[in-house]
Inverse folding.
């Protein structure tokens, strides 16, 4: 008798959750959402998430088209995997619709209750924060003044990678070096201290928590590097274009005019396309 009550107590909530999900799924169909793969109760499409994520998303895009819907638990997400459609999403008419950020817990507790520039909702506060970032962090003067930091971190990363494969060929996992590079540059520019590499495990852990929700930079670099290495044609084409912009066998000068750097934009677009 006790076992029967236990089974009923477990099965009844699951049954109710299943019924509720069927109801919401029917409502979602009426909302004319993009196509979606079959989902499981409660977890939705979490079972489809396999590393590397961009490969998973690419396979789903090949099957369901450039726009499709996923559900991570109770959170519905629309995935757009076409560059041309993404460009349409950020035109003057649609930019404000997609300008607000998701209300994540990391933004509430580590982003000062949704007031940081990367998590604040669109409005007067966000516009003021953006002006400060542009003028104090990414202006030409600020970037030129911090060029030595970027050079030091890039040299340190290359030295470490070459040292790991000095004796023989070695398998290199690029995610960690790119993470350290991006975080060290950001933290040295903002606090004067490195996030990784100074044998400060406590500080490294704190920085990891702070930047846990902002891994797009080094993930994009890793993905771009993998794309270049896999295509010798693109690699040669990019090298030729860089030689045309900077000069064959010439390193980038300490302070490069913005007009020269803008010429490199087609290279970045080609990598990410």
């Amino acid at each position: 008798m006790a076992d029967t009550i236990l089974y009923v107590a477990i099965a009844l909530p699951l049954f109710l959750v299943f019924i509720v999900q069927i109801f919401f799924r029917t409502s979602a169909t009426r909302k004319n959402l993009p196509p979606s793969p079959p989902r499981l109760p409660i977890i939705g499409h979490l079972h489809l998430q396999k590393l590397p994520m961009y490969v998973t998303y690419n396979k789903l895009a090949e099957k369901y088209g450039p726009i499709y819907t996923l559900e991570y638990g109770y959170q519905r997400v629309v995935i757009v995997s076409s560059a041309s459609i993404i460009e349409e999403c950020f035109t003057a008419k649609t930019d404000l619709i997609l300008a607000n950020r998701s209300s994540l817990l990391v933004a509430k507790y580590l982003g000062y209750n949704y007031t940081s520039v990367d998590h604040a909702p669109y409005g007067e506060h966000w516009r003021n924060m953006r002006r400060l970032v542009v003028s104090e962090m990414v202006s030409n003067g600020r970037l030129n003044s911090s060029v030595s930091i970027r050079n030091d971190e890039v040299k340190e990363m290359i030295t470490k990678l070459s040292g790991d494969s000095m004796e023989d060929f070695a398998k290199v996992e690029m995610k960690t070096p790119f993470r350290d590079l991006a975080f060290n540059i950001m933290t040295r520019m903002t606090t004067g201290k490195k996030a990784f590499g100074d044998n400060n495990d406590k500080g490294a852990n704190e920085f990891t928590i702070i930047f846990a929700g902002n891994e797009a930079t080094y993930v994009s670099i890793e993905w771009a590097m993998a794309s270049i290495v896999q295509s010798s044609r693109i690699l040669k084409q990019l090298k030729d274009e860089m030689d045309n912009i900077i000069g064959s066998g010439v390193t980038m000068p300490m302070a490069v005019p913005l007009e020269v750097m803008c010429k490199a934009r087609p290279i970045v677009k080609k990598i990410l396309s």
The longest helix spans residues 2-30.
